[in-house]
């Protein structure tokens, strides 16, 4: 092999990798960007996990990508290790599909209808159709189909370049002598492992082995150990992805290595033991590209069948290899600490991950308001105040981290439903953070009342107790509506918000009357007015969250046109709900 051949080989590898990536990414987009969520939601049993892992990996053409996703699932708490191992087993099988695509290169020109399936003709046809769909169509889906065809064409062209660059090696004694050393299984496994580790792709490694088969020098005896080494080496990218992951995430990454290593070990012991006794005649048979694809698939299916009944044992082995770490003292931060950067490349997963974090944020905001109101109307304590302050700081971290995370997701190409979700989540997390700000304001008012020994009239206390009940109700409703995406419940927020507004107006009027009558001091009045302002703002933010939910359900976010519409036309049982809340939270009189 001269310099030009070596350069052609490297160029073929580069084209092969690019074509495989382009085809896999486009296939994923054509599938509706839902593969990741399907993988997450439907992997309940080992059989389902294996089938789903196989299917998804066959589509995206990368067992490493599937496994990295699974590491993210476990790392974020969305999936258990037991489920993850079964999906990884499926990914190990699914990645062998690429080898079958590559084996089309075995069909050469010649005559008859078979010539239509040759590498040259297939590459040309798919490239022509692909570039037409890519350049002359405005529909995204057709453009992505064009990318699939272009990716396939580039992959096949790269494969052809690799095969042609090594074709002269069939007459090289140095090359033949080197290959005979690979008949030692341990050396073959080591070479396959090192090579796959370097190029970071098992499919590409198999492709290069298939290209070398064009020399006629690759026999079964040479190919099998290299294929086993390639399988083990495919775990390296997954292991690298686990840096910075939780203990569970690291265990999931290691499970890929454990499954491939144990599977290869057991398979090699069984196979070479049988060969020792029966001396298989096919060991010295030269292989073609399609034979290597078949061996690769059979080997991968075999190790999964061998290890499938032992998923629990594998989990125990991994748990022994990677010990538990100390748990963080602030469990409330678990949700944002589990926002997976790995999912940014898989927007449906990133949005799902964000939703779980915002749910937790809403529950924390609800708790903080409840605690702050209790400091006002029940009893004040310094510990209670510090708890409100602590949760407020945590919620600030939620807003910052989720907002940054969603912004990274938003810059990617997203389907309309995910765009709506991202918009809704960004608006909602801002309102939750503002609600928690008002919780801290109320706690500070309670502290000032305690420190300055301020007392309110019995009428003022009754008013505060009444409106705090309404505030607790509207907050509980909006958190439940968001968590369950309950649009009907969201429609009930605006009537209650209107009641709270009227209660605030009445409280201000009654306060002025008490000031005029001299039953309330000016200092009391300042604190009272501040509290009423916080009450009103809290209900406004609840209204914002409900309005955003309703508007985004319709696909368009206006300046809360829904609130104006429901008030002016009193739709969606507005009057009925308004009367119900009015009776429950009586409008006070002096």
Structure description:
The chain has helices spanning 3-30, 35-41, 46-60, 63-75, 81-94, 97-102, 119-135, 140-166, 173-180, 185-199, 202-212, 220-233, 235-241, 247-278, 289-307, 311-321, 334-337, 347-377, 382-410, 416-451, 458-484, 487-490, 493-517, 522-553, 561-569, 574-584. With 590 residues, the protein is mainly α. The chain folds into three domains: 3-321, no CATH class; 328-453, Up-down Bundle (Methane Monooxygenase Hydroxylase, Chain G, domain 1); 456-590, Phosphate transport system protein phou homolog 2, domain 2 (Methane Monooxygenase Hydroxylase, Chain G, domain 1), CATH 1.20.58. The longest helix is centred in the last third of the chain and has 36 residues, at 416-451. The mean pLDDT is 83.
């Amino acid at each position: 092999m001269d310099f030009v051949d070596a350069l052609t080989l490297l160029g073929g590898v580069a084209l092969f990798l690019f074509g495989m990536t382009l085809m896999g990414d486009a296939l994923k987009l054509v599938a509706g960007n839902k593969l990741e969520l399907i993988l997450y939601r439907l992997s309940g049993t080992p059989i389902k996990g294996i089938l789903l892992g196989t299917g998804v990996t066959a589509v995206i053409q990368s067992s490493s990508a599937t496994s990295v996703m699974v590491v993210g699932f476990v790392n974020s708490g969305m999936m258990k290790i037991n489920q993850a191992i079964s999906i990884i087993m499926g990914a190990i099988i699914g990645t062998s599909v690429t080898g079958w695509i590559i084996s089309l290169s075995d069909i050469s020109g010649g005559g008859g209808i078979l010539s239509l399936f040759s590498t040259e003709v297939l590459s040309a046809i798919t490239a022509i159709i692909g570039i037409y769909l890519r350049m002359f169509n405005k529909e995204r889906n057709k453009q992505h189909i064009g990318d699939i065809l272009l990716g396939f064409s580039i992959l096949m062209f790269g494969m052809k370049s690799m095969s042609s660059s090594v074709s002269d090696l069939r007459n090289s004694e140095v090359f033949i002598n080197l290959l005979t050393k690979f008949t030692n299984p341990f050396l073959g496994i080591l070479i396959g492992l090192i090579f796959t580790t370097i190029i970071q792709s098992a499919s590409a490694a198999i492709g290069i082995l298939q290209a070398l088969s064009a020399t006629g020098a690759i026999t079964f005896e040479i190919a099998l150990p290299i294929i086993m080494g390639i399988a083990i080496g495919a775990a390296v990218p997954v292991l690298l992805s686990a840096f910075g992951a939780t203990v569970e995430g690291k265990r999931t990454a290691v499970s890929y290595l454990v499954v491939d290593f144990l599977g290869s070990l057991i398979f090699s012991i069984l196979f070479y033991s049988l060969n020792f006794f029966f001396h298989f005649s096919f060991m010295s048979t030269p292989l073609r590209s399609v034979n290597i694809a078949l061996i690769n698939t059979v080997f991968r299916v075999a190790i999964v069948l061998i290890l499938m009944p032992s998923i629990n044992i594998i989990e125990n082995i991994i748990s022994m290899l990677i010990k538990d770490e100390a748990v963080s003292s602030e469990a409330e931060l678990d949700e944002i600490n589990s926002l997976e950067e790995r999912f940014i490349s898989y927007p449906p997963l990133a949005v799902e991950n964000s939703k779980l974090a915002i749910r937790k944020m809403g529950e924390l905001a609800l708790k903080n308001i409840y605690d702050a109101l209790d400091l006002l109307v029940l009893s004040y304590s310094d510990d209670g105040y510090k708890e409100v302050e602590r949760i407020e700081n945590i919620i600030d971290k939620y807003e910052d981290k989720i907002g940054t995370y969603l912004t990274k997701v938003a810059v990617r190409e997203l389907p309309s439903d995910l765009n709506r979700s991202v918009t809704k989540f960004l608006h909602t997390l801002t309102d939750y953070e503002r609600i928690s700000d008002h919780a801290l304001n109320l706690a500070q008012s309670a502290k000032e009342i305690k420190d300055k020994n301020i007392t309110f009239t019995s009428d003022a206390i009754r008013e505060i107790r009444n409106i705090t009940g309404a505030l607790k109700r509207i907050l509980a409703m909006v958190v439940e509506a968001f968590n369950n995406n309950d649009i009907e419940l969201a429609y009930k927020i605006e009537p209650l918000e209107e009641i709270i507004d009227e209660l605030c107006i009445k409280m201000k009027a009654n306060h002025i009357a008490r000031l005029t009558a001299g039953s309330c001091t000016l200092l009391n009045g300042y604190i009272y007015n501040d509290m009423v302002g916080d009450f009103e703002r809290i209900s406004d933010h609840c209204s914002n969250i409900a309005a955003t939910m309703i508007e985004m359900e319709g696909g368009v976010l206006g300046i809360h046109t829904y609130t104006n519409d429901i008030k002016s036309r009193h739709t969606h049982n507005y009057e009925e709900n308004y009367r119900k809340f009015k009776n429950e939270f009586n409008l006070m009189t002096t």
